[in-house]
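Pipeline run #58 for the internal structure catalog. This entry was flagged by the ingest filter as a single-chain record with no existing model, so it goes straight to prediction. Upstream metadata was stripped on purpose; only the residue string is passed forward. Reviewer on rotation: M.T. Logging verbosity set to normal.
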Amino acid sequence: MPHRILFVSRRNSLRSVLAQACLSHMAGHAFVAQSCGQPGWVDRAIHPAALAALAAARIPVPAAAPRAWTDLWRVAPPRLDFVVTLDERCIADEPAWPGQPISGLWAYDDAAALADRQEAERSALRTLYSLQRRLELLINLPLGHGDTSALRSDLRDLGHMG
């Protein structure tokens, strides 16, 4: 059964979309990736810099529009194995995720907040390539071995990569 992972960022228009798309592209057979943002902050559409970065890397764009974490719970709380927060400003307001998934913070600068389009696109591409390296390591962790404590440490350690 694939592992279920949720990527959280403030607007759900760039960082979390890049992470979701990248992991789905790299290991869609082993992971079901979703993304969401903080209620009240979510953008209406995927940021153009995220679209440009995904196009440059030839990674398909996720079909879902940006959404808040409250939108994930409208039908039923999702069953999650992992929650990766990409913006530390979200941490204090995040809900207690059902099932106590393994969580970690992988903080990235907010390229969507940059006013200069070209700088936002460069920043989004750097973020995508950094996420790709972290996700390659995540994919290769011994996920089925049942050592939750070690896995929790590994996921958090990935957030401290350069």
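catalog note: The mean pLDDT is 94.
catalog note: The longest helix spans residues 117-139.
status: ready for reviewer M.T.
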